[in-house]
Amino acid sequence: MSRSLKECNNCIQQFESHFPHCPYCGQKAGDQLTLNVLFNNTISNYFSVDARFFKSFIPLMIKPGHLPKQFISGRRLMYLHPAQMYLFVSIVFFFLFSFVSRKQVEGFDSAIKKDIEQSHSFRDSIKKAAEVKKMNEYVYEPKSESESPIIINNKFIDSVTKDKPNKSNEIFNTPFNEMEIDSMIVAGASDEEIYRKLGMKADDGYFTKRMYKQILKFFKTKSGGSILQAFLDSIPLAMFILLPIFAFILKLFYFRKGRFVHHLVFSFYFFAFLFSVFSLLVIANLIWKNFPGWIMTLTMFSTFFYLFLGVKQLYGGSYIRSFIKSSAISFLFLSLVLPFALFIMGLMAFLFY
């Protein structure tokens, strides 16, 4: 009695249909691509990066759209899982980027401290000029015939003291004076007193009060590096959130070219490519101190052409149509989604640094 045979999507070998898995490669028989399949065991298998990574990395870099097309078609054991590839490459990137970000945070803190020192120096000069102004007009009498009298003109002092008043700011339309806040902190005033001076009211909402608390924290520490560090630390999570949004944009432009999970596969591989490129740029900057900016610019522009060729390979269509759609996808993502994400990241970094 003959038994029916079926073909494995991964290794293209035929086997008897009653087998639940392919006896040649081990892939599940009749495996349909779903969200469960895409994410199943991804975290637990993350560190089991084997030779498939090296087999997948070259096609990822030089053959746009090849890996997602192979994975969607059913060849899921020949190459590294898309989510696994993305996680591994992103971890490598953020490890390398930490060396650069540390220098940026230190430089940011140094710049703020220098600005504060210059501000204090200028305030001292204003204070001295104001004291001299009270003397009306002071004439320095020469001690010898070789010296000339020195006259301090009140008009000059007026121009300095009027044009450069004590620096003040505004929070939620409430003006405050930085010198007064600094003085209250030095004098040991309570936080409640300083909050009132800043303009915080008892009936303000949680968000507003949180903003005032962070502002006072900044005045006390005079450190903007911690805010920048909090912003940089939020990038991995933000990128992971932006990834499905990018897949949704692909779905809008290629609505009839597969389910959402198919576009998510492409997004995983595309973002893995982006992190690979960024990692190479970081390495180049760490090794080559004066790394040419034009090479970096050219490399960044190349990511668009990768997207263009990738959608052409995966979704088909003419080159002109693929170019127009990839341009629209890039514009929509870079002009609307990414700026909004950066704003949210900056706001969250300030609120929770």
UniProtKB/TrEMBL annotation:
Signal peptide: none annotated. InterPro entries: DUF3667. Pfam families: DUF3667 (PF12412). Coiled coil: none annotated. The chain crosses the membrane at residues 79-100, 235-254, 266-288, 294-311, 331-352. This is DUF3667 domain-containing protein. Keywords: Membrane, Transmembrane, Transmembrane helix.
